[in-house]
């Protein structure tokens, strides 16, 4: 007998004119294949990468002040305009309804012949399309959660934890001694701080507000620099000199702070160098941009010597380099420390219909520090 599971699914659709429509659709899943499971989605977070899909793209999201509700209470619909400059990079998604949600957690309600061991279990999962009441996934994209683990605990098991651990793998592979992290009071930043404290890895945290600095200091962070402080640059150089940190991760992208960090690294490295070298020190400095919180151009002041590099860092690429065994090792640690080291804090939980309210979109669309939202599709 063929089983079918029907439920709501959130969609983001862009048309040829640049109009973005967010709505709900009723969808039906058929029985899973031998290596698949059907999961009743209980919780799924709104990550910055999900916002890029939901609200347009990383290079041209909609104006949050321009949202137009055109649906009903039962079937809410939002329309908005994507900037014309962003349309060329988005041509492949024009006319294609996309369901965001990179990761989530829920209960397996139907399992293929090779997945019966997961039937009735709560699992964390990835693969996109999680903003739905039901999701079919391959068992390779599922991890059975420890008994007693809530869906909220398991919903963010992949992106932030694997990103933070991926930073450490990059540190080891490229033989750096310490890490600098920008916008460090985020959920990911606090997670990285806990990991570095546990693993005795020097971490320099850079934030933009005094209250963000307090959050990290209260969490035990040793090096916390507030860029709004008048003594920020001197403090940054001192922290870099003490830690010998030459690897930085920047989720902001736009502006001049990346350049400021590289310059401070060069100043710290030159402190013990005797003599003058017009090309700067031989100490290599690496900065990776892994996000787009600021869409402005990245500004680079070239007075950072010549031993440096700026590149992009994407979790998908790093996991591919690690291979299945390396990734499995990281996930084993995440599972073991899911409610401690890798715990996520949420500002609020929203049902699928609440996600499509203009005020809610403006709240989670701001990507404010500490403002992580959870979607509970069954609510």
CATH architecture of the largest domain: Alpha-Beta Complex
Which regions are unreliable across 5 or more consecutive residues at pLDDT < 50? none
Helix fraction?
25-40%
Q: Shape from CA axes?
A: globular
The biggest beta sheet reads: 7 strands, mixed
Number of DSSP helices?
Answer: 10
Mean pLDDT: 94
CATH homology superfamily of the largest domain? Medium-chain alcohol dehydrogenases, catalytic domain
Secondary-structure map with pairings?
Layout: E1 5-14, E2 19-29, E3 36-46, H1 48-54, E4 68-69, E5 78-81, E6 103-111, E7 122-126, E8 134-138, E9 142-144, H2 151-155, H3 159-174, E10 179-182, H4 187-199, E11 203-207, H5 210-218, E12 223-226, H6 232-243, E13 247-250, E14 253-255, H7 257-270, E15 285-289, E16 294-298, E17 308-312, H8 315-336, E18 348-350, H9 352-355, H10 358-365, E19 373-375
Parallel strand pairs: 10-11, 10-13, 11-12, 13-15, 14-16, 15-17, 18-19
Antiparallel strand pairs: 1-2, 2-5, 3-6, 3-8, 3-19, 4-5, 6-7, 7-9
Helix pairs in contact: 3-4, 3-8, 6-7
What does this 3D model show about the protein?
- The protein has two domains: 5-156 and 344-375, Quinone Oxidoreductase, Chain A, domain 1 (Alpha-Beta Complex), CATH 3.90.180; 160-317, NAD(P)-binding Rossmann-like Domain (Rossmann fold), CATH 3.40.50.
- The protein is α/β, with parallel strands linked by helices.
- The relative contact order is 0.15.
- It is globular.
- The chain has ten helices and 19 strands.
- The chain is 29% helix and 27% strand.
- Strands 3, 6, 7, 8, 9, 18 and 19 form a seven-stranded mixed β-sheet that branches. It has a six-stranded parallel β-sheet with strand order 12-11-10-13-15-17, with helices on both faces.
């Amino acid at each position: 007998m063929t089983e079918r599971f029907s439920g709501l699914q959130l969609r983001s659709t862009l048309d040829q004119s640049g109009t973005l429509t967010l709505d709900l659709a009723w969808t039906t899943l058929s029985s899973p294949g031998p290596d698949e499971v059907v999961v009743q989605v209980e919780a799924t977070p709104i990550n910055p990468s999900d916002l890029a899909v939901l609200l347009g793209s990383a290079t041209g999201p909609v104006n949050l002040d321009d949202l137009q509700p055109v649906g009903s209470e039962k079937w809410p619909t939002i329309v908005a305009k994507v900037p014309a400059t962003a349309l060329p990079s988005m041509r492949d998604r024009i006319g294609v309804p996309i369901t965001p949600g990179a990761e989530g957690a829920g209960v397996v309600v139907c399992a293929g012949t090779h997945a019966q061991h997961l039937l009735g279990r709560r699992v964390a999962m990835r693969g996109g399309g999680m903003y739905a009441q039901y999701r079919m996934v391959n068992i390779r994209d599922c991890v059975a959660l420890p008994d007693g683990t809530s869906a909220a605990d398991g919903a963010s098991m992949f992106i932030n934890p694997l990103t933070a651990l991926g930073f450490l793998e990059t540190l080891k592979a490229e033989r750096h001694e310490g890490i600098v992290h920008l916008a460090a009071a985020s959920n990911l930043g606090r997670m990285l701080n806990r990991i570095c404290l546990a693993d005795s890895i020097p971490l320099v945290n850079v934030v933009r507000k005094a209250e963000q600095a307090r959050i990290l200091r209260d969490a035990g962070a040793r090096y916390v620099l507030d860029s709004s402080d008048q003594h920020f640059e001197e403090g940054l150089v001192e922290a870099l000199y003490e830690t010998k940190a030459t690897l930085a991760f920047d989720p902001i992208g736009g502006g001049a702070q990346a350049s400021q960090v590289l310059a401070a690294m060069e100043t710290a490295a030159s402190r013990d160098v005797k003599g003058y070298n017009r090309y700067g020190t031989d100490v290599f400095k690496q900065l990776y941009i892994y996000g787009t919180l600021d869409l402005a151009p990245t500004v680079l002041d070239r007075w950072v010597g010549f031993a440096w590099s700026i590149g992009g860092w994407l979790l998908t690429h790093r996991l591919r380099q690690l291979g299945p065994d390396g990734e499995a090792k990281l996930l084993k640690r995440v599972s073991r420390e899911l409610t401690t080291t890798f715990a996520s804090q949420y500002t609020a939980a929203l049902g699928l219909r609440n996600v499509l309210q203009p005020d809610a979109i403006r709240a989670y669309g701001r990507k404010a520090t500490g403002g992580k939202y959870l979607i509970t599709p069954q609510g």
